[in-house]
Design goal:
Heat Shock Protein 90; 5-stranded antiparallel sheet; alpha+beta; 5-stranded mixed sheet
Amino acid sequence: MVELNKALFCNLGDRSVDGYFIFNCTAQNFSYLNKSISNIWELGLDEIMANPRLLAEQVHTEDLTHVISCYQECVEEDGTEKKYEFRLLFADREKYVRVIVFVVADGGVKYLVGTVEDTTVMRHNKIHIEQINARKNITLEVLAHDLKEPLGMMKLTASSMEDGIAQTGDEQMMNSLAFIKEMCERNLLLVRSMINREFLKSSIVEIGKERADLVWELRDVVRFYKRSKLGKMKNIKFTSAAEHIYLRLDSMKFLQVINNLISNAIKFTADYGNITLHAEEYESTVLITVADDGIGIPEELQAGLFNHLPETLRPGLKGEESGGFGMGIIKAIVDLHRGKIWFKSKIGVGTTFYIELPK
């Protein structure tokens, strides 16, 4: 445990736009607060110094249990820097704050010393970017599905015209039909390669986990699918055992996992079939399931499903191609979250994927 140079710390705090604090764990009061703490909590410094519990009263009700457990963790453990994020709730808005705190000793007394940063703008921007990224990936899947049928019909029509035109000996028309067929095939491959490339990006970048509301994230993905043409051809729904489930994850990458599982379910489920996403919270884990009543996975393909094996690849019910690496990357991203993934499947009955993540 390091010693506290209080004068230097307070000098830094008096000059900083971030909040600086020193909290006496024994006396349960603040030895030091800078002006920025007052600005972030929108309370007077004298009020906070006189009654530190006022800070807790501003914490969002959904995050209060989380904040209490964070405080207990800090008091019980020594020497390790801790970082936490939670929300403050005001009458017309909420704020996100990030606290960096560690334990120091001064004259045998234990203190919590740290800084507070208002991350509201950064957090809102991150949420917005995650929404855009998730919707972009879904849009690519929808685009691939919607383009395959008309481009396939164009290619088939061009092929059927070739025999008749070949008899006329019109070389220019034959070349034009060949060009149409080639362009149809090329554009189908282009869209699929874009999807594959985007999913590959999700696995090669290190994850950055932050506290997130899993229910909100999953509901937003399903809502976007249901608004698309694909959603009108399948019965896609989301259920949850709780209104909010909070855990630490890299939302952008994990939503790509969910997007890929839903996309696969769509490929192997007949029109107007059922696809269900469900979230269940336990004491130390969260279980997410993606279930469908599609054609199922043949038993001989199940063992190598997460291992990039070529023999596990198969086209969807409407001829949708497989990228050949999706399941391997799904498992890699789940592993990076220290989670587990497995599945159960029966031919003609359907498939259910299970993802278990630590809280």
